[in-house]
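Sequence, structure tokens reproduced for absentees:
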Amino acid sequence: MASRFTADRRVQARRVFCRRLLSLGAAAALAIPATPEAQVQTDEQRSAAKLANADPTLAPDLLLPDRDMAWWRDAKFGVFIHWGLYAIPAKGEWHMFNDKVPAAEYAKLAGQFDPQHYDPDAWARIASDAGARYMVMTARHHDGFSLFDSPASYGQYDSMHAAAKRDLIAPFVKAVRGAGLRVGLYYSPLDWRFPAYFRPRELPDNARLLKQQTYGQVEELMRGYGPLDILWYDGGWLAHQGTDADAAWFWEPDKLNRMVRRYQPKIVINPRSGWKGDFDTAEGPGPITGPIRARPWEKTFSISRTAWGYTRDDNVMSADEVIRLIVDAVIRNGNVLANMSPDPDGVVPPKQVETLRGVGKWLKAHGRAVYGTRPGPLQPVDGVYGTTQAGNSVFVHVLSWQGDTLTLPLAGPVAAVRNLSGNAVEWKRVAGGLRLSVPASAREAPVTVLEIRRGVDRGSLAATP
């Protein structure tokens, strides 16, 4: 009994030490000096801008085969949800770090987090009405607070032990499935409460706790909510430096994602764990340019121009802006994941809903040129047009008219051309291609979509040499 008592005291002392190290170290890590004027980007901006550089030879056997990626490539459009404690101060999801809020002070928000109007069925209806085919929700962001029942959470920092006293992910998963949409969960291994996130080599014991929490929580998510369709990692880099792949030595993403595949063999995984993932990502609302990308990818951005998490302003993107990004993505082999930001009570701001409804209205009329298509056969011309194709049809997405007509370098028989809006369109075979003409009054903003039906001989419509 004496030896057992001594061992218990050692364990207790170790826990006390780790807690003190965590609270003191996290406060020090967050108390960084003011950003010099010469620095062009904040850590938040650099997080969005960082590129994936995952080793392509790392765990290629974990990649999904094409048949298991088909639904995701067909879906084209999803709705993201950023929601958590950061909705209460309404200063964005990076509030804790950007405003240097000590971890213990920030954690007091959990005592206020009890959303009375949280209705995931309503969220799913918003996404469905927007024409989305999948949804992704933040199960845990960089602040470390989890929206699910998480025994693996350090310090029981989850919604079960907050004022909400309930798991908020379970009803979300049920609602999304009930709406006939695919369901995804976002998880960030980054946790600002841990000083070892910023100094993993110098603080190995604290680093071990951070990594242990990550593996434990990912396992809880993968085994606790039935079949899931998407795992959306974020924050895999260390100390806000380098890239996610640069931190692979610490997170061991091949090992982490092998565990994921054991529970969810067909889940689609993004590349932000340091492993290359099943698709590439691009973050932010900047314009999409260039040729068709060889690998499936996803453009993700927030409808709010201010932040991903809730803020009180109404500075939101218009439906036309979102539609333009959808078009520019799909003609280049991409999807779009557009974020909405519920308030602390669980209500999505009306102007964000209005934007999404506008997107849904457009997709209802033009969805056949988006869903289930693949890019091509023509390479896009930036700011002018791009093409998608499905079955016997080629869809031309005209972004701007450089004159009265548009000549496409398409070879092969054509049976008919129609304007998906129902408005007039004229077409004619000319040397080197197909000439299209739509009266100025019949052109649509932000894009005119024309369907070219292949000829009766089912010959391929291809780019002319």
Observations:
- The domain at 43-369 is CATH 3.20.20.80 (TIM Barrel).
- The longest strand covers residues 134-140.
- The two ends are 85 Å apart (CA to CA).
